[in-house]
Amino acid sequence: MLTTNPFDDDKLREECGIFGIWGAENASSFVALGLHALQHRGQEAAGIVSHDGLNYHAHRAMGHVAGNFDRDDIIRKLSGKVAIGHVRYSTTGETALRNVQPLFAELAEGGFAVAHNGNLSNAMTLRGALNRRGSIFQSTSDTEVIIHLVATSSYSSPLDRLTDALGQVEGAYSLLCLTPEGLVACRDPLGIRPLVMGKLGEATIFASETVALDVIGASYLRDVEPGELVIVNEGGIRSFRPFAKATPRPCIFEHVYFARPDSIVDGTSVYEVRKKIGAELAREALVEADLVVPVPDSGVPAALGYSQASGMPFELGIIRSHYVGRTFIQPSQDVRHLGVKLKHNANAALIQGKRVVLVDDSIVRGTTSVKIVQMMRDAGAREVHMRIASPPTKFSCFYGVDTPERSKLIASQMNVEKIARYINADSLAFISIDGLYRALGDQRNATAPQRCDACFTGEYPTTLTDCDVDGKPKPLSLVATR
Ligand SMILES: O=P(O)(O)OC[C@H]1O[C@H](OP(=O)(O)OP(=O)(O)O)[C@H](O)[C@@H]1O
Ligand SMILES: NC(=O)CC[C@H](N)C(=O)O
Ligand code: SF4
Ligand SMILES: [Mg+2]
Predict the structure, then answer these.
(1) Pocket-testing residue among 262, 277, 319, 327, ligand 1, by greatest number of atoms within 8 A of Cβ
(2) Separation of CA 360 and ligand 4 centre (Å)
(3) What is the arithmetic mean of pLDDT over 330-340?
(4) What pTM value is reported for the model?
(5) Is this prediction's ipTM beyond 0.85?
(6) CATH assignment of 273-441, given 3.40.366.10, 3.40.50.80, 3.40.1180.10, 3.40.50.2020?
(7) Is position 186 annotated as part of the catalytic site?
(8) Residue 297 preceded by cis peptide, ω within 30
(9) What is the CATH number of domain 17-249?
(10) 47 lines ligand 2 (CB under 6 A)
(11) Is there a binding annotation on residue 177?
């Protein structure tokens, strides 16, 4: 089945993680470790492609990094001093082995492997045009259009062909590519998804987040800049700016939820920012209570910030089981509710008779909030107030986060008072969009926002070529083709 529409199901998932290394013996073993540190970004599938100077080697598997890439026989097969890897949460194309990255093809000028974090907002349009010109696709992933655009480019060098291909795609892409010219890292002109560069001895590393550098003891050099293409080979490291200059719009949600708190994103500590968001939330929406309780794990730093700014004690009123994955990955609404119960439990002895402020990073469908508020009431809480460290999520993401279709986002259907009633909270407040920017040390420029914040504001930084804001595919006749 061709599933190029990001809204084929209603699961909300994260995004993907990429990791690449050039110039280390057993490169793939470093990639396996790096991917392990990026596991929170994608838990559906993982893959590694390596190059030993002569041949390419690939292994892709459904499931986690552990259990697939901690096997000696597999890592030994992935030989060579250069390798790239990927952990996936699908945004376009079904969860199946044929869509697991890195994708690889033997092109006229040699092998080409690509690992992509992001989502192309004109992939369907490009795919249609490529199909009509005779391209035969092997997967239903948006990423594969890059391979066909490279394959059919009229330029001669692999780097020029890649640049030509990327000039035609729209949306979000942080990419790692193995080409006959070397390891290439590239970030889209808006820098929507993150990508950092590091060093370990003589080896050069690229990763979605700095935690993946930490895990192998590598040092952080710098971010790959929005619109920058970096190539690493025997000749050293070269940087290019092949695209028209644009004002960057990195994803603000990385700071709220996606990135690990021990990562540095856009040059700032995610943990520090989350605490500042919590402090800002306390300034904007203070409520008198006995305890500030985080919804673990992702609500913890914001709850700490809320507690420190308000002077109310921070307590672990909800304990999280570490043997249950993120709620999103449950296959149906019923099971998802069960998943939330399995995951969180009230620390009842603490909650009994107390006025509680719950702090979570976001409300998407409302599933978690309904359960957690009820859990507090069942544990004897006198009042339950909910504070959210992001504005209401009203719009879907088209840039590499698998959000449900818009109608399933509770904030697109109900105002704050209605949501409060729905989740049965005594009060509910979300941080304002300006407050979120303040926590990041910025003042939001209303006419030209400094970040992508489209899931809160609906102000998408690129044209949505393939579909409308509700995810409804546009009739092909209305879509421009090249
Ligand atoms: O409104 P919902 O549809 O329930 O989604 C929102 C919840 O999902 C996320 O947590 P999740 O449990 O996925 O992961 P976490 O353990 O990292 O917080 C997020 O932190 C919210 O708690
Ligand atoms: N979440 C992502 O970054 C996914 C990458 C790519 N769009 C895919 O679906 O495979
Ligand atoms: S729409 Fe939201 S999640 Fe997607 S890139 Fe923009 S800010 Fe990030
Ligand atoms: Mg959560």
Answers:
(1) 327
(2) 6
(3) 56
(4) 0.94
(5) yes
(6) 3.40.50.2020
(7) no
(8) yes
(9) 3.60.20.10
(10) no
(11) no
